[in-house]
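User: Can you recover a sequence for this backbone? Please restate the input before giving your answer.

Assistant: Of course. Working from this structure:
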């Protein structure tokens, strides 16, 4: 039993060691392209902030930290900077692959305090226009939205069915549009459990229950509609992932899951949050939330790791049988050579099966 266990551990170690080389010789995706809201935004509003604060502000997290999309893009050698604006470039198109915009709804363009906020639908339309109507078949696309539509429901409860139904239909339509344009890999994260955010907690048990119910309803409707439309996506369950972190934060390196890393508590705005407004220097990693609803950069890193586990896990598992076969073949050839026999080459004898003159 001990030898069998050691062999399995060795195979697993070889598989993990081989992953960086495989990633370099055969990338999983040609690029990463993101559509979404503030959870994914790579700096859409940064050029609109005072130049003096742009280096330490402009994203909806504990600035100047990264969001999950940037961690994921870095892993695949892609670029998750804003596709809308170049750094300090005014209205010129950016060079990044991140079309997400803070405050974006799925199918409705809006105007916030900082101006025009293109919906996910507008983001996809502009992307395909710039790409000549064709989606890169080897790219990984992410379509993550719906949270701002649920905030709209909280502001107008009587319109809940219309708002959620419209957002779900729009998101399914975007997945269909990208698929028809040639996209093959589309990651669709669920809406996190909004009831666990500091903002919901501040509203009491009723607000927490409502936030959880709204997120759950949207996720159920979305994936039911995707299934009915026969659209293939890669689901990412951030809803239950947040529940796991909040329920047992220590294994994730999180200390505080109820307060906010940015000051003032709960009402802080992560877009302008910077090192001078943090609760403590290590708050971006000790806290789960930057402000009332947005994750810290430490929590974003956890989300990126969750995404990588979903995207790369099956690939790593597929390597294990190859590693086992390679180890078995090497053992067989070493043993056969020691006995003065020619190693078997048919692949069926790699596990050390051999004959002696006494058999």
């Amino acid at each position: 039993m001990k030898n069998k266990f050691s062999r399995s551990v060795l195979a697993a170690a070889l598989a993990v060691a081989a992953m960086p080389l495989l990633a370099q010789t055969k990338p999983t995706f040609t690029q990463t392209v993101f559509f979404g809201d503030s959870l994914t935004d790579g700096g859409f509003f940064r050029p609109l902030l005072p130049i003096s604060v742009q280096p330490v502000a402009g994203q909806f997290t504990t600035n100047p930290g990264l969001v999950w999309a940037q961690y994921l893009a870095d892993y695949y050698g892609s670029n998750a900077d804003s596709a809308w604006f170049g750094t300090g470039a005014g209205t010129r198109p950016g060079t990044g692959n991140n079309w997400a915009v803070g405050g974006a709804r799925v199918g409705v363009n809006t105007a916030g305090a900082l101006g025009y906020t293109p919906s996910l639908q507008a983001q996809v339309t502009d992307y395909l226009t710039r790409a000549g109507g064709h989606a890169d078949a080897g790219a990984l696309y992410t379509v993550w939205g719906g949270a701002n539509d649920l905030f709209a429901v909280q502001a107008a409860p009587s319109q809940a069915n219309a708002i959620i139904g419209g957002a779900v239909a729009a998101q399914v339509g975007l997945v269909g549009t990208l698929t028809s344009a040639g996209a093959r890999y589309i990651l669709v994260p669920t809406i996190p459990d909004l009831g666990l955010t500091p903002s919901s907690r501040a509203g009491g048990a009723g607000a927490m229950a409502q936030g959880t119910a709204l997120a759950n309803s949207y996720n159920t409707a979305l994936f039911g509609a995707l299934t009915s439309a026969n659209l293939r996506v890669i689901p990412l369950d951030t809803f239950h992932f947040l529940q796991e972190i909040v329920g047992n934060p220590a294994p994730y390196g999180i200390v505080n899951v109820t307060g906010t890393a940015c000051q003032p508590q709960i009402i802080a705005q992560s877009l302008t949050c910077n090192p001078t407004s943090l609760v403590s220097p290590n708050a971006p990693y000790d806290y789960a939330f930057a402000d009332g609803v947005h994750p810290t950069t430490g929590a974003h890193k956890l989300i990126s790791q969750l995404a990588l586990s979903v995207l790369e896990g099956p690939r790593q598992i597929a390597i294990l049988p190859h590693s086992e076969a390679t180890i078995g073949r090497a053992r067989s050839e070493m043993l056969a050579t020691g006995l003065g026999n020619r190693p078997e080459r048919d692949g069926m004898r790699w596990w050390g099966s051999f004959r002696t003159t006494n058999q």
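That completes the design. The longest strand covers residues 32-36.
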